[in-house]
Design goal:
By secondary structure, this protein is an all-beta fold. Strand 2 and strand 3 form a beta hairpin.
């Protein structure tokens, strides 16, 4: 499992999260497949849109050219 940190740029629940990555300062896209993948730092599920600029840590696996999200923690 790989981890990236950055600021949320765009998010549509149960679809795609775009993150401005700290490591490269360029946007990275991550595919969310189903509900329950986005939690706050207390582990509680977030069911609303992530606001642009929110600090996030994305845990994902590479599946070919697609980065499939295991879960996202929002600060």
């Amino acid at each position: 499992m790989t981890t990236e940190e950055g600021s949320a740029a765009k998010y549509q629940p149960v679809k795609t999260l775009v993150v401005l990555q700290d490591s490269s300062n360029t946007p990275g896209s991550y595919v969310l497949n189903g509900p329950g993948h986005v939690v706050n730092k207390n582990g509680e599920v977030i069911r609303t849109a992530i606001k642009p600029g929110s600090r996030v840590r994305v845990y994902y696996a590479n599946m070919g050219d697609v980065r499939m999200v295991d879960h996202v923690v929002v600060d």
